[in-house]
Design a protein that fits this description.
globular; 14% strand; DNA polymerase, domain 1; binds FE2/S2 (inorganic) cluster; alpha+beta; 5 strands
Length: 200
């Protein structure tokens, strides 16, 4: 359990004398582990992951739902964590980029494909691209380069590595095939289904 003592935003508010919002207690299963976390009611899932759960892999780009850098899986569906209240995720399962590799550190097929295709430059968008690609493949939206480009269009890359990103998704989809869509370690991707992920 991660307690209120780790609430960085609350500490900052206390230092400035600004009022803090009411606290909430939220139960989240993140990358296969369940936590009960006390947090400000207004905190986003993105800030909760990064600032209270020490999971900085999920990036903050625009912080307004426009870039996809903060993409995570919520009960298998890809979402923008910056636009999601942590309190709204009570009882739900989240997978971040940190949860994709196997327990022994072996990267999953999508992660390996991004490396093989050199699908990044600065890398800032990459965690969101990879998580989104996992869902894209599992949704069955990786049948062609055109389809991948369309269904990955919510993830922007300021370095314009789009051709390599599409190639990486194609490579991973080819490796995973139908079996991969069924048993990817990040679990089911159909919305409203519960993820079955490895214990982190
Ligand atoms: S940081 Fe969430 S969409 Fe840009
Ligand atoms: S690799 Fe730099 S933003 Fe995508």
């Amino acid at each position: 359990m991660i307690g209120a003592a780790s609430l960085g935003a609350e500490s900052a508010s206390a230092q400035t004398g600004a009022p803090t919002s009411p606290s909430r207690s939220t139960r989240l299963t993140v990358n296969g582990r369940t936590h009960v976390i006390v947090h400000e009611a207004r905190v986003s899932l993105l800030d909760l992951l990064r600032e209270q759960m020490a999971l900085p892999g999920t990036k903050k780009g625009c912080n307004e739902g426009a870039c996809g850098a903060c993409t995570v899986l919520l009960d298998g569906a890809r979402i923008n964590a910056c636009m999601t209240l942590a309190a709204a995720c009570d009882g739900r399962a989240i997978v971040t980029v940190e949860g994709l590799a196997s327990a022994d550190g072996t990267l999953d097929a999508v992660q390996r494909a991004f490396i093989a295709e050199d699908a990044f430059q600065c890398g800032y968008c990459t965690p969101g691209q990879i998580v989104s690609a996992v869902a894209c493949i599992r949704e069955g939206h990786a049948g062609s380069a055109t389809e991948i480009a369309e269904w990955m269009s919510g993830n922007l890359c300021r370095c314009a590595a789009y051709p390599q990103i599409v190639a990486a998704v194609e490579r991973a989809a080819a490796e995973l095939g139908a079996a991969g869509r069924a048993v990817h370690p990040s679990g089911a991707v159909q919305p409203a289904t519960v993820l079955s992920v490895r214990a982190g």
